[in-house]
Write a structure and sequence with these properties.
Elements: E1 6-9, H1 18-32, H2 41-61, H3 66-80, H4 87-104, H5 111-120, E2 124-129, H6 133-142, E3 151-154, H7 155-158, H8 165-175, E4 182-186, H9 189-198, E5 202-206, E6 219-221, H10 227-235
Parallel strand pairs: 1-2, 1-4, 2-3, 4-5, 5-6
Helix pairs in contact: 1-4, 2-3
Length: 246
């Protein structure tokens, strides 16, 4: 394997700190409606995560709008607190949640210095993300990442959703770079890690949660800080142990 020429990053919860934003939104709802605190904080977050995991694929397929997906998630939070929200309450909840989400919008700590450092070394930077084009382009603009990213591959444009190999192949084709000279950094084991492996791209799992490591041969990062370590993991493949076959 030669030098790394292309590093592909997932966007949500890898470069964009989506987790901080939606957890802040949930906390704002619990301040506005104390009844929601009947459910423990960890349980509320877990419920929201499960709901998002179920509904987001429908948004990607175009069978559910982003607005309806959010309404369903908000309704679930209220129902878990023993409440049945009417339409007016849901509208207010959406406003409270969205306002706090926007206020907290920002990059994952350490990600911007990492991108700048990789680019100074001459490495091409790409984003590979599952979503619709408009919201992802808007995120990149509002986060100030447009000038740090050389290419963006979005599932809606490609017509394929990670872990489908076609979205990774489209990113490689846009860069005119072989898979052996590319790395994929992402937080989703299924979408980013297994998807990248299927096309021969070396993956790095951005493992911010508490999930176990399914495959110890896969390199991981829990943070992009310190910068030197993050760069080293991304740019250098793992060393093979003596006696282990290639």
């Amino acid at each position: 394997m030669g030098a790394v020429r292309l590093v592909l990053f997932d966007l949500d919860d890898t470069l964009f700190d989506h987790r901080r934003c939606y957890r802040g939104g949930i906390a704002a709802l619990r301040r506005r409606w104390p009844e929601l605190r009947r459910q423990a904080w960890a349980a509320a977050v877990d419920e929201y995560d499960r709901s998002l995991a179920l509904l987001h694929p429908l948004v990607l397929q175009g069978t559910l709008s982003s607005a309806d997906s959010r309404r369903a998630r908000l309704r679930g939070l209220f129902q878990a607190g023993g409440l049945e929200p009417d339409e007016e309450t849901l509208r207010e909840a959406n406003s409270v949640y969205a306002g706090r989400y926007r206020a907290l919008r920002g990059c994952v700590p350490g990600s911007v210095p990492l991108l700048r450092s990789l680019r100074r070394q001459g490495v091409r930077i790409g984003v590979v993300t599952n979503h619709q084009v408009a919201p992802q382009r808007k995120k990149l603009h509002e986060l100030g990442l447009e000038g740090l990213v050389d290419q963006v591959t979005i599932s809606e444009e490609v017509g394929a959703v990670k872990p489908d190999p076609r979205i990774f192949e489209a990113a490689l084709q846009a860069a005119s770079i072989d898979a052996s000279a590319a790395v994929m950094v992402g937080d989703s084991w299924e979408n980013d890690i297994l998807g990248a492996q299927r096309v021969g791209i070396r993956p790095v799992w951005f493992r911010r949660g508490s999930e176990g490591l399914p495959d110890r041969s896969v390199q991981t990062l829990r943070s992009f800080r310190p910068l030197a370590r993050a760069r080293s993991v991304i740019l250098n493949p793992p060393r093979r142990r003596p006696g282990r076959p290639p």
